[in-house]
Amino acid sequence: MIPVILSGGSGSRLWPLSRQLHPKQFLPLVGDRTMVQITALRAAGCDGAGRPLVVCNEAHRFLVAEQLRLAGVEPGAILLEPVARNTAPAIAVAACEALSQDRNPLLLVLPADHAIRNEERFAEAVVRARRSAEEGALVTFGVVPDRPETGYGYIRCGDPVPGGDGACRVAAFAEKPDRAAAEAYCAAGDYLWNSGMFLFRASCYLEELRRFVPEMAEATRRAHGNARRDLDFLRLDSDAFAESPADSIDYAVMERTDRAVVVPLDAGWSDVGSWAALQEADARDGDGNVLHGDVLAIDSRNCYLRSEERLVATVGLEDHVVVETADAVLVAHRDRVQEVKRIVERLDELGRDEASNHRRVYRPWGSYECISLGDRFQVKRIVVKPGERLSTQMHHHRAEHWVVVRGTARVTCGEAVNMVSENESTYIPLGTRHCLENPGRIPLELIEVQSGSYLGEDDIIRFSDLYGRD
């Protein structure tokens, strides 16, 4: 059995913590580990699981690789989507890759950003689903509802599968309902939440995809067949993948196939799709509040309050979400947190960077964050991981001063190579080819002062790069 981890989402409903270039699957939302790490370890804990295949946005490739490394999970491959095409094509290319590694494995398809409190029950549900999947069914996991939820789709259970260990035929899929319909579904007793998790043979999925959406099956086959290896990644052919229709696995296959089977799952599942869902998945205090960071809540109830940088204080607040980061603060009523994505859309329209980046920006070599920005100058804090280095580059419009505050830097400036230690500085003139490297065993931290007529990140001419960036 090969886990397939889908890590292509943007998580816009969890703004301002989740950003387009650092979305929710890479954040520690329900514990010390990030969501993609938790998902990979959850999959590894299932009986018979092999090395996972991860499908992700090309812009997130180094985040995926680094977070799996930190979790001690070795991927079978990291497949890079050149453009977003939803879950059906993503699973198709993963199935092609799985068939190239194995004769015809089972695929355990898991979104990277779900929370499950009881992982033993999840592993038991996977075992129950295996028999049906091995016999050719396309199995989905339906979550036993504990409330009339309007934010999830539903699955109506049909006849039991003979010898299926609790599995049922899928009678129907239902879209996200209004409140009255959700209450009716829960009262009926034969409806389950649609979790978006699946188990099936790779060949069975591709057979059904060719049956219902042949143009998608063909485009993804070519995208995988013409893919090229790049470091630890598999770059799908961009032209072929772009020709695939964009659609979810539910619409493309599951709602049309006669091989759909559902296995009930009662394990404390949440898709963490909004701040309200995250509040439901987290531990609460005696007043029903979820508190993270430096938070002072007085006479406040049923709130989600999160501080990343500064003190957040509330008085007399009820049923609200307050999330503070270094560059943004969200205040929203719990009943309207699904509309947070409208803020992201508006920020995109205005061309504001808060939609895509945090103040701290992660790179494969480490991170940087802007401390101060003014007319013709910018101050950044740069952290370079041990053994890593930035690309050899130059700038047309700015000069740079570097002050090392921790560790030792190897600095190439023109033809000269120098070691710069703590409390020492160096200067990179405008238009000079240069490189920064950390040869030590501890993180290198430095303050960079830029000065010039233009300070944008696109004023970088790269001559060489360890990470395959243009």
What can you tell me about this protein's structure?
With about 475 residues, the chain is an alpha/beta fold. Helices cover about 25% and strands about 35% of the residues. It has eleven helices and 30 strands. The strands form seven sheets. It has a six-stranded antiparallel beta sheet with strand order 20-21-22-29-24-27, with no helix packed on it. Helix 2 (about 60-70) links the parallel strand 2 (about 55) and strand 3. Helix 3 (about 85-100) crosses helix 7 (about 215-225).
Keywords:
5-stranded mixed barrel, alpha/beta, 6-stranded antiparallel sheet, 470 residues, 24% helix
Offer a concise description of the structure:
The chain has 470 residues and is of the alpha/beta class. The strands form 7 sheets. The protein has a 6-stranded antiparallel beta sheet with strand order 20-21-22-29-24-27, with no helix packed on it. Strands 6-9-7-8-12 form a 5-stranded mixed barrel.
Output mean pLDDT.
94
First and last CA, distance = 36 Å
Low-confidence stretches: none
- Strand content is 25-35%
Strand order of the largest sheet: 20-21-22-29-24-27
Please tell me what the overall shape is.
globular
| Radius of gyration based on Cα positions | 24 Å
Let me know the largest β-sheet.
6 strands, antiparallel
Give the structural class.
alpha/beta
The total of helices stands at: 11
In terms of quaternary structure, what is this?
Answer: single chain
How much helix, percentage-wise, in residues? 10-25%
Total beta strand runs: 30
